[in-house]
Amino acid sequence: MENLLNLPIGIQSFSELRTRNMLYVDKTQPIHRLINTGKYYFLSRPRRFGKSLTLSTLRAIFEGKRELFKGLWIEDQWDWCQIHPVIHLSFSSIGYRELGLEQAIRQELMSQGKYFGVTYSQQVSIAVMFEELIQQLAQRDGKVVVLIDEYDKPLIDYLDDIPLARANQQVMKTFYSVIKDCDPYLQFLLITGVSKFSKVSIFSDLNHLFDLTFAREAVALTGYTQTELEHYFSPYMQEVGENLGLERPVLLEKMREWYNGYSWDGRTRVYNPFSILNFFRAGDFRNFWFETGTPTFLLKLLREQNLYKLDSLTVHERTFSSYDIEYLQAIPILFQAGYLTIKAKQEFGLYTLDYPNSEVRESLRGKVSRRPTPESVGRH
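C-alpha cells predicted for AAA family ATPase:
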C-alpha cells in the first residue's frame, strides 16, 4: 500500500523517528504523567521493548523541541518554554569492553563536558566528575535532567565472569553515589535496565528512587496495547492480511497468540514492539525477538537448576527481588528478561508466571529441552 509511514525498526532516537516520516505510537500522555507526578524513577523492561525510545522522547521534551511533537497528545499540554539541560547516558555504547568500565565512564563524561562546555577539576574520580557536571550545568542553565539507559549492561555482559561483574558493580555504586547529594540541582531522573538484580546495592544511596516496574502508571508505558495495535497498525494489517489470505479477526487472533501477553500487573497485556514492527515488515509470522540474542549463561543456568518446565509457575513476590550476582536464580532473570511474564496475581503475595506468547514458548522450549547427559550434569 502507498503512503504508509515507515516502520521504525531499530530506531531508538525520537528525533530521527519524527523527522524521517516514521510511525510513532504516541506514548506522550503516560510520559507526561510521570514527569508531573514524580522526580526519581527506575524502570525495568526486557530488551528491545522501547526503553531507549522512551528516554529519547523525554530528552526531546525537556529540551523544548516542540516541533517534534506536532500532532501528539503532549503538544498542547506542555510548557515548551520550560527547558532543561539533559545528561543522557547509554551504557550499551560507552565502550566498557575495550576500555574497562571506569575508564569508559570517564571518557563519556569528558565527552559530555566538552558538549556542554564544562571543565572538570584535575585528577578527580568519575563520581566527582559526574557531580561537577550536574552542578555546573544547573548553576549555569537551570536544573538538570539525568537519563541513564541500560544501566545493568556492564553486569549482564559478565554474568559468566562473576569477579569482573562484581568489580563493575562497585564502579557503578561509586558512580551513582553522588546523585542523592545533587538533589537541589536535579529536575528529573530516570534509570532503565533489563533487570533489577543488584539494584539495592548499586543504588543503595537512592532510597527515594521509585520503581516503575510494577507500577500502574507504567504497565503500558512501553510495548503496544491491543487498542494501540489496532489503531496505529490498521493500514499495515490490511496489506499483510491480504498477502497471508487471512481475514482481520483471524489475523488479530494469530498476532495475539504469537506476540502479545507481556504483563507486569497480571491484567494489562502488551505486545513486544520489536516483534510487531518486524512482523509487519516481513509480512509473515516468524520468531523475531527471541533470535536477537538469548545469553548462553541463561540456558546453562536453566539446565544447572533443572528447570525444563516453565509453564504456570507459582512464585512469591519476593522472587522478583532475588537478584544477586553471587547466587543467580533463573526464575527472576527469566521474568526480567521477558522469557516469563505475570499471568495472574493470586492472594498472599503469590503470582502465576508463564511464557508470554508462542514466539517465546516454542523458542525457549527448543533451547532448554536438549537435556544434558548424566555425565555433563555431574560436571556442573
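Confidence is low (pLDDT under 50) at residues 372-380.
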